[in-house]
Amino acid sequence: VQLQASGGGLVQPGGSLRLSCAISGDTFRSYVVGWFRQAPGKEREFVAGIRWNSRHTAYEDSVKGRFTISRDNAKNTVDLQMNSLKPEDTAVYYCAADRGVITSTIRDSRAYDHWGQGTLVTVSS
What we know:
The chain is mostly beta strands. The chain is built from no helices and eleven strands.
């Protein structure tokens, strides 16, 4: 499976961005797709995840109520709508996918074998 992330950019605090992860190459209906981020000098952390066939979602606590993950069957994408952005959201954002991810491992980057390239999100005035 191949993943292609897009949609990053520069936005002011309080603004919004929508990231998109285009997925191809396999029957990914049984996959879990996650968004992770890595800020300079920090470890990669989980942001949000969705199970494609059930739409079950999970979020990191600091983004709950601000970010929404969704999937689009027609476009074969998993999108991350990010609202009320804060400077601490600045990071390179990655999408990842794997069919072996379960509820207890959805936040663990080691559970994902397939990764897209990152897209940079900068929140600054």
